[in-house]
Amino acid sequence: MIQIxxxxxxxxxxxxxxxxxxxxxxxxxxxxxxxSYPSLEExxxxxxxxxxxxxxxxxxNETEAQFTIFEQARCNPDYWQLTIAGGFLLRSDVQPSDAIxxxxxxxxxxxxxxxxxxxxxxxxxxxxTIGKNLFNAYFQNLYLYSWHVDTDLGLVTFHSxxxxxxxxxxxxxxxxxxxxxxxxxxxxxxxxxxxxxxxGFSIKTNQEITQVLNKRRIPxxxxxxxLTSLVTRPSFTKLSRxxxxxxxxxxxxxQLPVVHHNYSSISTQRYQKYLLHLGYLxxx
Length: 284
Known about the structure:
The protein has helices spanning 19-30, 40-61, 96-105, 114-130, 132-138, 206-214, 236-243, 268-278; strands at 2-4, 7-8, 35-37, 66-67, 80-82, 88-90, 111-112, 143-144, 156-159, 168-172, 185-190, 196-198, 202-204, 226-233. It has 284 residues and is α+β, with helices and mostly antiparallel strands.
């Protein structure tokens, strides 16, 4: 259900939306959760951002970027410095927007795992939504590694019985084969048709992803891989305010430490536990 300024919102048939935007809006309207916005403009921003996330996921699926573990990560040295941990550190002489776009343009030069892929898609969608100037102003010093993100993305993680298009979900493989630890799970982005994009898995249904993971279990296991209730999404409110210039000074932006864990395909929840051990946790 959707509320605008405390009043139940009913989508109008003549509201000018694209097919994908209508599908997103219908998911929100049919959901048992209440999605509340101070204005119609805020709702429109989230729908546009979710559409760009979905497009970014589909476009990544068409690229030549490969799935790999951190030890074998690759990036274009013209835009990124490859760290010893397998992360991509933005070069000081390039714009953040150009570096993110290069992952799509020169995709054959890149290889990364699925958590990093999900973050890249979110940055790409943010760039498409707020434009180059704001993106370059607020997303300086990018470092792509697992679930490490710029705090202005406002990444939030929680458990839910339902998902919306553009959400990142997690498939867990509890008995993954230790010889292929990157099949411990999959971070995937839900699309408008209910399917999921997972880097290295292409676009598949829930059942198809589960079947692939089940083939990578330890011998004799009878515990199936499963789509968990974990949901990760950006703070659309934070990004909307950023787009309007209603945010703090860039000079006072808080920064989180990077946890170099070297475990591919982990969930956001697991990464947050690493941050908690360090005494940090950003809640959006």
